[in-house]
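Assemble and predict.
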Amino acid sequence: MANHQTVDFEKNISRALNDAQLRKNFKFAMGNFVVRRRTIFPDAIETEKLRAAGNAIKKRALSKLPQLLEQLEKKCTQNGIRVHWAETTDEANQLVLKIMQDHNATRMVKGKSMVSEEMHLNKFLQAHGVEALESDLGEFIVQLNNETPSHIIVPAIHKNKDQIARIFNEKLPDTPYTEDVQELNAIARKTLRQKFYEADVGLSGVNFAVAETGTLFLVENEGNGRMCTTVPPVHIALMGLEKVVEKLEDIPPMMRLLIGSATGQLITTYMNMITSPRKAGEKDGPREVHLIILDNGRSKIYTDEQRRQTLQCIRCGTCLNHCPVYTRIGGHAYGFIYPGPIGKILNPQVEGLEAAGVLATASSLCNACQEVCPVKIPIPELLRRIRNESYGNDSPNTMQGQGYKRNWLEVITWKAWSIVNTHSWVNAAGLKILTTPGLKPPRIGPVKTWTRYRTAPEFARQSLHELVKQNGVDNE
Amino acid sequence: MSEPSRERIFARLKSAVSTSAAPVAQPEPLPKVEFDYQEKIEKLKTLMQAMRTEVHITREQDWLSLLQDILKQRQIKSLLYGPRTPIGAALQQKWQDSADGLPELVPYDVEVEEIKERVFNVDAGITSTMGGIAETGALILWSSKEEPRLMSLVPPTHIAVLRADKIYNSLLEVMQKENWSANMPTNAFLISGPSKTADIELVLAFGVHGPKELIVLVIDN
């Protein structure tokens, strides 16, 4: 959660923009994802209906969130799953460590979990003598190279196969250099097989938790998720508290939306539904299943009706793929675990505006993210809210760090703007003065920077107001 | 440590709920998909084949011979199976007649701790299925005492037997018809093909952690 104060977003952006290889990797992958999504949701009207359903299901779940979480806890407990609550990432880390220690466990295999990234769990466990090994291929690559994921769905997408070939060759013992994707794949399979076999604990995320039955839903293509949740004797599942849905019947439309938006597939290779640990007489599966439910700022976000919509997110990553900013700078430039449009609204709310508010400036408010969001989160609206609050505009539920950007120049400028536009004679006089010296604004200060690559604007001789008065309005 | 946190989390959530009690408008239900018997088989077959699954349509009296051909052709040396299932009984019977050139049958009838190494080293596993889904092309498997979870996951080849009359239109339909909400098993899962990944340059590669091959025998009487 900490150490984000040092993120220099502008510097990161220019570094990313000047990295030709990185831009090439992202341009290729994001373009590909956009086409895939379009192919899997071919009918615009049907897709709209589906998105409306997704939005309604998540809204309904959020409208009774405490009740559903209680029901989930009760059902899971009845089924034999042990439920733990963590208010902070630190507390969640401690809970994981405690479970490991209770079993004298030193080896963990991990399936993909963004919550565990949010917790910086790997670093924490390593500091406590526990090996936490990522088993999703993309996460495995990223971990080998000591990096964080650059994309929610495809964590190693910033690397091309040559770069990955070098990482495998350097970091894995006795591994020849090969750029063949099938061979790289086989190397990962061989390395991780042994790890699955030996692991004491398996850890996974959760895509949806169904309150009605106490079932944890996980989707994946590789099989590593099923390995992590089936082979080791203990399974720990991590979820943010917003992941609960009410009924089993909510799952089919949510899955269609999640999978279609995330990877452009109709269905993933595996859809895993876990309801209990190994029962008497069953031959395999973990003997213990733990569910850790993490808050980390979510319950605060929940208290504001508008901001609550952030919690509808199902982490499909499609807003990243469609974002003109993300596509050009990639995930790492943001400096936070959640990049792209969703990160721009989530991180400032969790980490505070001073630490992460700057992310909200990296948007042209083009609306692409909102148009593709499977649960219709109004991301641009929330970006504007964050920008407003950064300058201290009042709202009933303020974010941490509200008004951190407020300064006298802005305040005076807007005050002046307001006077000019509410007093017509000031407005008219102002325009006269502005348009007299050659109809061009002087090239100083911000105007100078702006006009380095752009044509300088020219003031019209007559204002629109005057033109309308003079010529009337032609509706044709 | 967990208890006060839980209380604080719930206190915040509950304080927020009381301020916004407006019910959420629900959209009209999504259209239901309906295929006829033959269409369901075709749809499942087409979709699963597109995911590089081998799908064979066969009959009750033929499936064991077909299975033996497949096993021989692939030179599979060992086959993990559940001896206490109808499939298991049929296999034992058939193998008793003649096991010439056929893989050794490895029964999975004790806890994994006792035979973990064996399970991780067999060539193939065979399981029954509780049904299929036409709309997306997938098999439905429910773990059981008789057919443990690793059988369809660890061996490089997974062979699944599916009864054509158990192919449902959609996931929603099977959830409703079979009343899943009242009796979810320890582990249920859908499988739509062999294990795959596209994490390197979005290039599709099969057999990353789960089975490299999925073979489905659809019994259509």
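Residues 121 and 155 of chain B are 7 Å apart (CA to CA).
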